[in-house]
Design brief:
It is built from 8 helices and 11 strands. With 236 residues, it is of the alpha/beta class. The strands form 2 sheets. It has a 9-stranded mixed β-sheet, with helices on both faces. It has a two-stranded antiparallel sheet with strand order 7-8.
Length: 236
């Protein structure tokens, strides 16, 4: 991997919880920071995107009868809260990090600026990108692919609840096939739900490799990247 590696890591918001009843768990956030430290210590330029599933999910707006546009904006604001929480946890460990948001918020949050973000991550100051794409109807997976391309990442890492890409849902189906490597076209054709199709198509168009692994197994992202058994690579 060496110094050529430049990484964007996507975490689901649910990884900030230790139980479904919580919104933020200090121990869960601590695990996320620990997983990132190996990348930071290796001085690899790092961007981060976090979802908002611990605070607000799309199906919640449907149940409440909200317009989807409103619901998506609530979710985008939730990603700002999560990014600030993780940035604070990084700061407490002596790691200087920044939050950039596609939604204007002011205060300690910067507007999205890809050139500034590249400069900061090259100085070993991670940037957390919040606010999704800034538009409704796009997921944080799509935002992760977009931000990865903006910072010229060489790898998009998706930290999730399963050990890579499977032919079906391993949490619901028995005997599903696990892939060590799979192409973008195969993921799109089979409509595998490891990431949304927009993010896969965007990565494919720009030849951005994706690595999907089970968060915490191992906890260190660098260890996961160095293990052939830890997850799945999506690329041509």
């Amino acid at each position: 991997m060496g110094n050529q590696l430049r990484v964007l890591v996507k975490f689901s918001g649910q990884l900030l919880q230790s139980s479904p009843e919580e919104t933020f768990s200090p121990s869960a956030i601590g695990r996320i920071v620990t997983s990132l430290q190996s990348v930071i210590e290796a001085k690899i330029p790092l961007g981060i995107v976090i979802g908002a599933g611990n605070l607000f999910r799309g199906n919640m707006s449907q149940k409440a009868g909200f317009d989807q546009v409103v619901g998506d904006h609530i979710g985008m604001l939730g990603t700002v809260m999560n990014a600030l929480a993780v940035r604070e946890a990084l700061r407490q460990r002596g790691i200087k990090a920044h939050v950039m948001s596609s939604i204007a918020t002011g205060g300690p949050i910067l507007p999205i600026d890809p050139l500034l973000a590249r400069s900061l991550i090259e100085e070993n100051q991670p940037v957390l990108f919040a606010g999704g794409t800034g538009n409704p109807f796009f997921t944080t997976d799509s935002a992760a692919a977009l931000r990865a391309l903006e910072i010229k990442a060489t790898l998009l890492v998706k930290a999730t609840k399963v050990k890579g890409v499977f032919s079906g849902d391993p949490m619901k189906e028995a005997g599903v096939k696990h892939y060590k490597r799979i192409t973008y076209a195969e993921v799109l054709a089979a409509k595998l739900n490891i990431m949304d199709q927009t993010s896969i198509a965007l990565a494919r168009e720009h030849n951005l490799p994706i690595f999907v692994y089970k968060f915490g197994d191992p906890l260190s992202i660098m260890e996961a990247l160095q293990s052939e058994e830890a997850g799945t690579y999506i690329q041509d």
